[in-house]
Amino acid sequence: MRHPDAGRLQAFIDGELSLDLAGVVERHVLRCPTCQERVAELQAAESRVGQALGLLEPVQDLEAARWEARRRWAVRRSATHRKRLAAAAVALLFVGAGAAAAMPGSPIRAWLGGDTPAPAAAVATEARGAALAVGLVEGRGRVELDRGVRLELRTGPDDRIRVAASSPGAFDTGAGWVRVTAHGTEAPVRLELPAVPHRIQVLVGGALRLEIRDGVLHRAGLGAVALPESDWLAVDLDDGGPDEQ
Amino acid sequence: MQTQNFGWGFVNFDQLFDDVYPRLHRYCTRMTADADVAEDAAQEAFVRLLHRDVTGDAAGVRAWLFKVATHLVRDGARVRNNRERLLRANPMDTVEDVTPELELVRKERIDAVRRALETLEDRDRTLLLLREEGLSYRELALAIDVKASSVGTLLARARRRLAGALNGEET
Asked: At CA B150, angle to CA B161 and CA A14, rounded to 5?
């Protein structure tokens, strides 16, 4: 057998040859002082390199890294979702306008035909009802509720706290905080919390009951629970722990 | 519990992360010498794995992660134009209870290793560091786009060059 080249000897050392080929190379090396010397050189280089690279050992926090990867993924998924929704809304608008223009007698059709003046621009109104959004202040926010209120949580689409109350109620807001008062106890108050880094406290009757940090609900004695992104997480503020629907 | 279909069956994300992330992070740290860039690249590779429909067997997924991280490290280094800063940075854990003199010696040795790594061609450095993280020849071939049959030759040459550069740093 001819001398194996350096690549084959390296693969032999690394255990990357097939059994048959490794046997052939091994038999040759055992009989060939030249190749024994080359194998020793390759092993010495490997050892030298391994020792040197051993000096470059990073500090690692696996838990923190895993959490950060998940958080980034959640943010990116939300952004993608918003883009898709926006694209779908634009498409729907065009389809709707096209359908309206095709309908005999429709004002849009008449407008396009030049029979009537263009309609005045619609005044943008937002039916807020019992809902509003509050921005965070340096990543912090506070929500204050009355006693007896049912609360549901999930991760929201943007960097604000969104509060929705389906029963009649009153909102007071300020920079980074919102207070919901005179809300009935039948329907829940729903909070959508940002996907960006945040620290949000929920006070009930003036007492701190929950804290949500970066999408994870923390409650004394109950550990941590990650907020869902589509379902609502119902939280009993009076007793017991959160319970995902 | 997070599961994701990577095309070779359902895998537990935490298990995959625990298995690959430490090696990926160490690889990125050795590639860049910048702790922030390294951590960012390693995490971003996993984010992209979750976000995209990556298919392949386990080895293919590992190779994909290392390949993506390699590009991210290179891009990060290029954008920041931080070559000089890289040599000054010290991403390693600080050892407590060591004298300033010993710490200085240690930092000098680390810098010497970094300088030796910098003398390698990009592909040689990548190959060497990937192999140090336990990638098989097949995974290496996938990660750097070469034939598996060429990996042994490239690896032997890269090790010889780095060993030579390390010896040169010592003289």
From this structure: 70
ipTM of the modeled complex:
0.72
Predicted TM-score (pTM) of the model is 0.53
Q: Which residues of B touch A5 (CB under 8 A)?
A: 153
CB A142 within 8 A of CB A177: yes
Strand pairing class (A140-145; A177-181): parallel
Closest by CA to B113, choosing from B167, B35, B155, is B167
- If one counts every other C-beta atom within 10 angstroms of the C-beta of residue A37, the result is 10
First to last CA, chain B: 54
The number of C-beta contacts closer than 8 angstroms across A and B is 125
- Judging contacts by C-beta atoms under 8 Å, the chain B residues touching residue A9 are 152, 156
- pLDDT tens across A109-152, in order? 666 665 444 444 433 323 334 677 888 888 888 888 888 888 88
User: Using a CB-CB distance cutoff of 8 angstroms, which residues of chain A are in contact with residue B2?
Assistant: 70
Candidate from A89-98, A196-205, B79-88 with smallest mean pLDDT:
B79-88
Beta-bridge partner residues of A202? A143, A210
Side chain identity, residue B12: N
Kindly state whether B159 is in contact with chain A, defined as any CB-CB distance less than 8 angstroms.
yes
